[in-house]
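Possible race condition, two jobs.
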Amino acid sequence: MKVKSFLLAALAVVAVSCGPDRSQILKVYNWSDYIDESVIPEFEQWYQEKTGEEIHVVYQTFDVNETMLSKIEKGHEDYDVVCPSDYIIERMLNSGLLLPLDFASIPEEFNYISLNKSPYIRQVFRDINPSIDANDYSVAYMWGTTGILYNTAEVTAEEASTWDVIRNPKFAGRVLIKDAPRDVYGPVLIYLKQKELQEGSVTLQELMHDASDESIAAVEAYLREVKEGVLGWEADFGKDQMTKNRGVVSLNWSGDAVWAIDEAAQVGVSLDYIVPQEGSTVWFDGWVIPKYAKNQKAATWFIDFMCRPDIAIRNMEETGYVAANGAMEVLESQIDEDCDPIDLSYFFPGADSVRVNPVLYPDKSVIDRCALEHDWGADTDKLLAMWARVKGDNASNWTFILIGVTAVVVCAAVVAGRRGKSRRRRSRR
């Protein structure tokens, strides 16, 4: 399927360069392994049925936010739709790199974005920039939380309910941390600022903008303490290490946690996921139309199609992540009678007692102590420099051990093939 998709995309690129009507071409740039590719030809057919116009999708992928952004900033690519992470949406919005979305041009009966936008998503995107409503320029695609994935045979729920579990000497050499400075800095700062948060002298949202030298130094000092017990700083292999019982604590994303929990259960390893009591961060990826897009109409219709409930459900099932879609059909597809009832009224109005997986959809009490990460702008280099110092200075012995183990695992995976669905590698710098 991927080879076929690649060949079709390559042929389409050649066709574009030869000069056909650009209005019949839609160029989409998305994360790897982040869509059910069978929905693409369905969109082409749906678009023709609804508009009477032919469209061909040129679908390409990226693995790093900044790779995508660089192409847009330089104006070297005329992508019509891209799917950046929250802080990149904020950066593009602030830099004037996005076109406004004209959903009023889509007939009301199948304007799925207006019909299915969650009130929670609407508010979170409104908070991205107080001066510019991001809802006018972007539509959330997938979302999740950052928390602790842990081995229930080795770690208690109480131990995992604090971010300080990553510093607990009891688990030294078995702790995995995402190689994602933004997703580590926020939670650690939240942990370190508990007194101020409880006193009300600072809010979670204010902390998400805190790039002060004092806070960076505090987080760096804490991570240096954590470092000696870290088995590895990982972009994608951490969940595999957890399923193989090599790691027992992992600072991770909820989507990866779901995959790991399911995989581990098949081999008799019990994992669970929790958002620590101190608070945490939520993340989003969303569809936008870049400044240099050539087919704004088809781009708008494509984003709308991705918000159709059945399409959202299929993309969830394929990727393992949670659609940022407030349609009741999406909620109904996730009902699991084995789960305890939780309050999702913040996301689905009226759904104050529904049985769904709380790793996928956090209870309102969890969301109330979470905040959206923000772009640091000119201060980003300070964050990256701190991260490089923490990782690069005197790597722990555990790290070198893991490098050797990982090399063996990778070789075995190449020979045997990876079991189960893949999950994208999210690189959030």
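Job #2 (started ~2 s after job #1):
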Amino acid sequence: MTDREIMLKKLSSYQFMMTDLKLYLDTHPGDKETLDKLSEYTAKFSKEKEKFEKLFAPLTASDTGANRWKWINSPWPWENEEVE
């Protein structure tokens, strides 16, 4: 697995945790421990996303800032080497 793939898996897992915690907070809005965990995962996600975007490319077209076409310079999925 490449560094890029590892980072994408990390980002995906952080995003999953953030979504899961938000769903829990819908029914338990006063749970301080869960709010703290959500803040922790949000910070981890932001840090990892920033690192990923510096090394590779923006994650989404809306993350490109002033140059909204920069994301297109990344390799397309079919241009990546096959991992066996």
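The mean pLDDT is 86.
Logs attached separately.
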